[in-house]
Amino acid sequence: MKEKIKNLIVRADFTVRDAMKKIDQAGKLGLVSGIAAVVDGKMHLLGIVTDGDIRRAVVDNISLDTHVKEIMNKDPIVFSSALNYQQILNEIFAQIDGFSQKSLEKIILVNKDNQLEDILDFYQLWKFQNSKALKIAVIGMGYVGLPLAIIFAEAGFLTYGIEKSQDIIERLRQGQPHFYEKGLTSLLQYQVKNKILKIYNNLKEINADVYIISVGTPLGKNMQPDLTHLISAAKMIGGKLKENDLVILRSTVPVGTTLQRVLPILENVSGLKGGKDFFLSFAPERTVEGEAILEIKTLPQIIGGLDNISLDKTVNLFRHICNSIITLDSLEEAELVKLINNCYRDLTFSFANEVALLCENLNIDAFKCIQAASKGYPRGIIPIPSPGVGGTCLKKDPYLYAYGLKKSGFISRLALISREINEFMPVYLTDKIILTLKEMKKDFKNCKVFIVGFAYKGYPETSDTRDSSTLVLLERLKTKIKNISGHDPMVNAKALIGYGVKPVNLTDGFKDSDAVIFMNNHPMYSGIDILKYVQTMKKPALFCDFWSIFSADEILSIEKIIYMGLGFTRRVNAEKTNK
Questions:
Q1: Can you give the pLDDT at residue 381?
Q2: Which domains are assigned to the chain?
Q3: Which residues pair with 200 in a beta bridge?
């Protein structure tokens, strides 16, 4: 029996006055109102008494000191406590003609021995069926959680955003996101103003029906997953969890985490049973930063549930915000799908980067080779090489993938090899830059280097510098060169200063620089008058174009410029440089 139900229990020899007191206090205790259950000493259900029964007794001049057994309903409609909400609804719909509206206002649940287990209000069942009435709490207002919260609020759900950082809370409450995402600002401002999306520090002040965990799962020591934030979020939710609530894990985790780590925490803290009292599913985030608002709506949402009810509840919820849904048979399948997506991408990028390293040795153009291999060929489009694969997801997820599989007894080789190649790229390029500058007889003490592009990618646009290859290159360069300036159209000056870089515009960055290094492919860079800028560099100068944004031949048309790309050795206009 649910502990709370003890407050709705009376004995057969209790008076009508006693029953009135029980019924009156129910609302104050957050219990089903208007009813008390009559039980014997072993909690067997004898009947029920409602506020309607009491009113009729008063009208019939029955004394309030009369025993409850004289006015109780001895044959109430009951349902088995072994049934979940959906099964109760199915039984009601199947026998709807046999029930009166009045008799279904309260749902009495008993076990196989006719002992009272719970009392439900029909509204609870209605809310279960009508997902649009649910209140949603998204835990973690980062790159995953904030766009998702905004999409649910846009769909008409009362949505709560939970964030630990007080600085971020204040910014969000003012309608100012703490990172760039296309379309995010205007939606946030409207929703905060109209109180559709509310931002809190914790769950104490709110009462939600759905909890979505979108906290970070970074790598800790020895590239092992650090689940500290996830465990903290699960404990916080467990403290608020009530019957019929839904918990959805959105964070990227090793396979088995939802079932083996999150579920036990929720059950232990709440005292409820997953799959019976509350429901649990995994619905991974698969959006690309810069297009998250659009992709949440257009990408198929992957959903795996603890059980069929968990799956159905999550599907019914996500139907309000996306075009298509793919359901899987388990939590583990859904967890693995996200890791497969990102590991495969990292693997294809690593192949392109390995081709670039190969072409370097052969002194041929990797970009031309890859473009020729892919053009018009339907059986595999090869991505272009890059100066490293950054960003939290692609850098972290292969390790989560390998960690989860290792626990199951399988050793992953490809995922870790691809990571090794991609993490080697910025290290290799930095050493190559330093060697080239040394060969050019540059004085490192007075050398001026201009780095262009600090976000981990340029397109789609993002302000996210987490695990950016640029930062790896920067830290190695700083061991030799002190005068480093930088530019990124999406990353604010304060962030660049924090990295030990002087923020400048393109004009000042190029002027008198000994080396310019393009580290991402933001669209604005392809439209600049690059020859005008290169002309202002301090000759001889090194121009590094690691995304092949510009024409090498055009750059080399300028005297005493060395062009360094990916996939081929530096290309020097020897005749002009030696003048």
A1: 87
A2: 3-129 (3.10.580.10), 131-329 (3.40.50.720), 330-579 (3.40.50.720)
A3: 162
